[in-house]
Amino acid sequence: MAPKSLCLLVATALLAYYVYVPLPESLEDRWRVMLIDATIRTLGHLAGLAEWLGVMHYMDVLKLMSVAEYVPPTSDENVTVTETEFVSVPVRLYVPRERPGGLKRGLVYFHGGGWCIGEAGEALGSAYDYLSRQTSNDLNAVVVSVNYRLAPQHHFPAQFEDVYAVTKFFLRRSVLAQYGVDPARVAVAGDSAGGNLAAAVAQQVRGLSS
Ligand SMILES: *[C@@H]1O[C@H](CO)[C@@H](O)[C@H](O)[C@H]1NC(C)=O
């Protein structure tokens, strides 16, 4: 065998070994999941290398993923999407189209990413933009997706302070009225680190009213 084809064979085998992860047969799009997983793993390795070389902080490399996945706010026939600030914290707002029959629901959403990465406007892997848009349309809810400050530039409790400040602001009667939201039907939600923030905010807000 020619050295070139031998190299190609070995490289292909190594690539397949790197990408392949055993997944249950029943899972849809197994190869897509493997490719996304391999991409994230690669980014992790590059981030480790960059930090080891002293070029960039590990998390700053991972943050590039949010930058690459960012989509500008785009409205469709169901939901009006805008970016604004609530009490100086950037938020992405999803307002469902007007429907007959009273007030809307409200949802304050906190993305995940280990308090270090993530962005409300991410569209591919994390798909926060898609998730918020669907939630807004399906639940007839005004969704406030919060771009809270991230570590390591901003340490705890900056993340909590931001999401709590936004939630308190949104819960003001005048603000809820402006968006046509029923004060009795507002929720907080999040995934991963955002789930932790949602739990913390829920506990603090409860303390406010009692
Ligand atoms: C708008 O909402 C309808 C009903 O939920 C849905 O069928 C349609 O796909 C939505 N349009 C977009 C662009 O998401």
UniProtKB/TrEMBL annotation:
The keyword Hydrolase applies. PROSITE patterns: LIPASE_GDXG_SER. It comes from the Eukaryota. One of its GO terms (molecular function) is hydrolase activity. Transmembrane segments: none annotated. InterPro entries: AB_hydrolase_3, AB_hydrolase_fold, GDXG_lipolytic_enzyme, Lipase_GDXG_put_SER_AS. Keywords: Hydrolase. The active site is at residue 192. Residues 107-206 form the Alpha/beta hydrolase fold-3 domain. Belongs to the 'GDXG' lipolytic enzyme family. This is Arylacetamide deacetylase.
